[in-house]
Structures are given as C-alpha cells and as structure tokens.
Design brief:
- The chain has 229 residues and is of the alpha/beta class.
- Helices cover 35% and strands 27% of the residues.
- A hairpin with a 2-residue loop joins strand 4 and strand 5.
- Helix 3 crosses helix 4.
Length: 229
C-alpha cells in the first residue's frame, strides 16, 4: 500500500443507541474507510446521525458497538486517557463555532493544542503557529486578541489551530455553518488546498451541498445508515 493509499480511519459495523426515554437506535451498521489525503464530506438531513457519528469517529464517544481503527490501530475499547492523547496528537477539530479564547492573542490560540501535547519548546511552537497562520494569510493578525477578528478570520484561525500538531486527520462539524458565502468559499478553498498540496486527510460534516460537491468523496446518511460512500 502506497503512502497515498494508507488507511487513516476505518469504521466497521458501528451501532449506537440512545436510551432517553426509550431505546432508540441512531446509527445502524455504519462502515466505511478513509484513506490518506482524501477530502470527504458527510451529508444527510438533520437528525440522520451525522454529528453522532463524528463524535464516535473522533473517539469522544466510546459508548457504541462495532470497531474503529485510527492510523491502522484498533482504538475501540482503549482507556479514556489514552484516547485523549491520541485525539490531541492525531486529530484536529474545526467546529461551527470557532471556540477561540478572547483573552489570548491569535498566535496563542493557535498554540494551545500543541502546548497540551508538550512536544516542542514555546519558541518552536511560536514558529510553527506562525507558519500555520501564513497558510491562511492571517500572520499579520498574530498579535491581535481573538475578539478583534471578524467571523471569517476567526474560523481561519480555528483551522490553523487544528493543524498545529500536524494531525493525521482533520474533522469538522459544519465548519462553514456560521459564515456568509464569501467566507464559506475562503474556508472551503483552504480545505481543498490542504488536501491537494499538503495531502491532509479531512472528514467534514456539512449541510452545504455546494461544499460537499467540491469534496473528493461524499458519504451520504439517512436514518442512521450510510446509503452512499
């Protein structure tokens, strides 16, 4: 298997139940594989299980049936502290809301996941964070506080932050959901650039059909099942 075909994520027969107030199956036998460098979107109507699935794939929800491999390692059943370390090291997250900390500068916000990981000195982290900001043409705003940025700028900083640990996989939950058309296009084009130029693997839940159409593969869900992958 070549590097470009390396399996990054493999879900096999994922079932998920909610129990309030009665037992309700929200994911049914979900299986698919994502390979290195793929830019994949997950689409489907509200309530079909997209975000629930993303929480399982990201290792944040461990209450499911089936198996999950990340970077060709079985991670189903691993302890929570182990999963937390794997998550910080191998997965970058981008949400609908940017979750930047207003009391910190743009540069410091980007550095936060790497400070948690503790692999690099602060000086080296500043260089790495600045390099990520340059990808998004945000380096000139490095010393501004997060609350001085526009909504589109904040989301670009959030993606730079997701990249700081050079993750194996970026996961997004409606990352353009709060943005206007112009900023949605900017964010989408940056994602596409990351996939094509940096071979970055991405799995993005989206309601935006135009965003999904531009990705390299669409996984479509309906009533807790994958109907197209």
């Amino acid at each position: 298997m070549s590097k470009s075909e390396k399996t990054v994520l493999q879900a096999e027969n994922i079932d998920k139940y909610f129990y309030s107030p009665v037992k309700n199956q929200v994911l049914k036998q979900v299986s698919f594989t994502i390979n290195r460098g793929e830019f994949v979107s997950i689409v489907g109507k509200s309530g079909c299980g997209k975000s629930t699935l993303l929480y399982i794939l990201s290792t944040m929800d461990t209450d499911y049936q089936g198996t999950l491999h990340l970077d060709q390692e079985l991670i189903t059943g691993k302890p929570h502290d182990y999963l937390a370390r794997i998550r910080n090291e191998k997965i970058g997250f981008v949400f609908q809301f940017h979750y930047l900390l207003n009391e910190f500068s743009t540069l410091e916000n980007v550095m936060i996941p790497a400070l948690k990981l503790g692999k690099y000195s602060r000086e080296e982290l500043e260089h790495r964070a600045m390099d990520k900001l340059k990808i998004f043409e945000m380096q000139e705003h490095a010393l501004k506080k997060a609350n001085q940025l526009s909504g589109g700028q904040k989301q670009r900083v959030a993606i730079a932050r997701a990249l700081i640990n050079d993750p194996l996989l970026i996961m997004g939950d409606e990352p353009t959901g709060n943005l206007d058309k112009k900023n949605s296009d900017i964010v989408f084009n940056k994602f596409k650039e990351l996939a094509e130029e940096f071979n970055q693997t991405m799995l993005i839940v989206t309601h935006d059909p135009e965003f999904a159409a531009g990705t390299s593969r669409i996984i479509e869900m309906e009533d807790g099942r994958v109907i197209k992958s």
